[in-house]
Write a structure and sequence with these properties.
The protein has 2 domains: 10-102 and 471-505; 120-375, YVTN repeat-like/Quinoprotein amine dehydrogenase (Methylamine Dehydrogenase, Chain H, 7 Propeller). The protein has a 5-stranded antiparallel sheet with strand order 1-2-31-32-33. A 4-stranded antiparallel sheet has the order 3-30-29-28, with no helix packed on it. A 4-stranded antiparallel sheet has the order 4-5-6-7, with no helix packed on it. The protein is globular and about 85 Å long. Residues 32-37 have low confidence and may be disordered. Strand 28 (436-444) and strand 29 (447-454) form a beta hairpin. It is mainly beta. It contains 1 helix and 33 strands. Helices cover 11% and strands 48% of the residues.
């Protein structure tokens, strides 16, 4: 026993040391957990208060005549809930997005839903494309005639986040009339006229959240002489085709390969001169199988439409399948779209810069009707750089640079057989100063976006509402904020019931 004297003290010290090492982190973790639990609880409280704000606004729209205070798109009211919820005040903002009231399909809201200058310095010939969710990318000629691509966020209700997500200057020398296409995953390709007026093709990466690669992935100079107004289209597999105005102002078509990782072939696969006289602003579209159609301003500045074949391996047939001179006077900036089945429409600027739309048929084997089905002058004053998209049923929307170079949008019916009744459903001057080179895209049901430019000044983006169902339903944007949390909802109501179209915690 005497040999064990003095051993208790070291053991006690060891136990105390181990206890200290365990207890201090435990107490710290407990404190952190308590703090985290408190923050989490506050977040839940704030969200519940926001939920209550949204529900209160819907109740007022249905039972308290709140809609009567917001008769026009863009009208808004801001109020606070009468009671404090979970220790915070809830602020509610209700904005009229579109008012039904029996408006016919195709009626345009006479106020832009939202607007944003995506470049406040310089912009020319913008081209917008959907990336994923609320994310969109815009390529354009920017400062110094360099090539830029920027990503922005547009919500389904037309709200534009007033900031740029990411930017890439993909061409530091010269970039004219860029045209962007999705390749695969997060890979995109841009065709444009570059340095020396040559034709260039580059690939970039754009993630679903809008992040752009720090530099282009690959580059190909597809024409070492001229590459004006290129338009790129998917063919098959890894094969793509580019139509453009080449040497001597003639019409050319080349094919290239673009792999899923963005790698471009070292040279073009095939090349074909489809018009040896003249070709301005070609627009190419896939018809069926190996058949493609190209609309362009050709000899005598007349409007021409041709069809040809491109095999799945990129080989271009040495000859044209069929052709149609759809306007014997003038056809600047033609843009072609499928209406239904074999029926297609081309919007363009004709004599006197007037705006026209013409319809014709193209069979799956490339046969074009001997004449246009219908032709309609949608703006007898000015209709330059028109773009057309389908809205709903037989209603189509055309954005263009109109009188005084302002930005115009019209809606009109084009029947499935190509008949154009000859009446415009609605007209809206969305920019009363400038509206050069508009590019139009659908955001959601009843909401479209237009990217356009003010020469030597800025690039702008607007969203516009178009009625897609007759009568009854009104739509509102509701935003409820409490603490550091906010919820935004897009709600449709017919004054009897309400449905939530969009809901997002911010």
């Amino acid at each position: 026993m005497n040999g064990e004297k003095g051993q208790a003290l070291p053991l006690a010290i060891l136990a105390l040391t181990i206890g200290t090492l365990l207890i201090v982190p435990f107490l710290g973790h407990a404190g952190t957990s308590i703090l985290g639990s408190r923050v989490y609880a506050e977040t839940i409280d704030y969200r519940m208060a926001c939920d209550a704000g949204i529900e209160h606004a819907i109740w007022r729209l249905l039972y308290d005549n709140l809609g009567d205070q917001l008769p026009n798109p863009g009208d808004l009211t801001i109020y606070q809930l009468p009671d404090i919820l979970n220790g915070v005040t809830t602020t509610v903002t209700v904005t009229a997005n579109s008012t039904g009231g029996g408006d016919p399909v195709g009626t345009i809201d006479k106020n832009v839903l939202d607007s944003f200058d995506f470049d406040g310095t310089y912009c020319n010939t913008p081209d917008i494309i959907h990336v994923s969710g609320n994310i969109y990318a815009i390529v354009y000629e920017g400062s110094g005639s360099d090539g830029f691509i920027r990503t922005v966020a547009i919500a389904p209700d037309g709200d534009i986040t007033p900031s740029i997500i990411d930017t890439l200057e993909f061409e530091t020398k010269t970039c004219n009339t860029p045209n962007i296409i999705h390749v695969s995953g997060d890979i995109y390709a841009i065709a444009y006229r570059g340095q020396g007026s040559d034709g260039f093709l580059k690939t970039v990466s754009i993630a679903a959240n809008g992040d752009i690669s720090d530099s282009p992935l690959d580059t190909l100079e597809f024409d070492e002489k001229n590459g004006y107004e290129p338009d790129i289209v998917y063919v098959s597999g890894i094969y793509y085709a580019i139509a453009y105005r080449g040497s001597g102002g003639d019409g050319f078509l080349v094919t290239v390969t673009i792999a899923a990782d963005g790698n471009i072939s070292d040279s073009t696969i095939d090349s074909y001169e489809f018009d040896s006289n003249n070709c301005d602003g070609p627009d190419i579209i896939h018809i069926s199988g190996n058949y493609f159609a190209i609309a362009y301003r050709g000899p005598g500045n007349d409007g021409f439409l041709i069809t040809l074949t491109i095999d799945s391996n990129g080989d271009i047939a040495n000859g044209i399948t069929d052709s149609l001179e759809f306007d014997t006077s003038n056809a600047a900036d033609p843009y072609i779209i499928n209406i239904s089945g074999n029926v297609y429409a081309i919007v363009y600027s004709s004599s006197g810069s007037d705006g026209f739309v013409a319809t014709m048929t193209i069979s799956p084997t490339g046969d074009i009707s001997d004449s246009v089905i219908n032709s309609y002058e949608f703006d007898p004053s000015k209709g330059e750089e028109p773009q057309i998209i389908h809205v709903v049923d037989d209603i189509f929307a055309i954005a263009y640079r109109g009188p005084n170079n302002d930005g115009y949008l019209i809606t009109l019916p084009i029947e499935s057989n190509g008949t154009i009744p000859g009446t415009i459903t609605d007209t809206f001057e969305y920019d009363t100063s400038n509206g050069y080179f508009p590019d139009i895209i659908s955001v959601s049901d009843g909401v479209i976006a237009v990217a356009y430019c003010v020469p030597s000044s800025k690039g702008s983006l607007v969203t516009i509402g178009i009625t897609t169902s007759s009568g009854g339903a009104n739509t509102y944007r509701i935003r409820a904020a409490a603490g550091d949390t906010a919820i935004q909802a897009h709600v449709a109501t017919d004054n009897i019931t309400a449905s939530i179209i969009f809901w997002q915690v911010q």
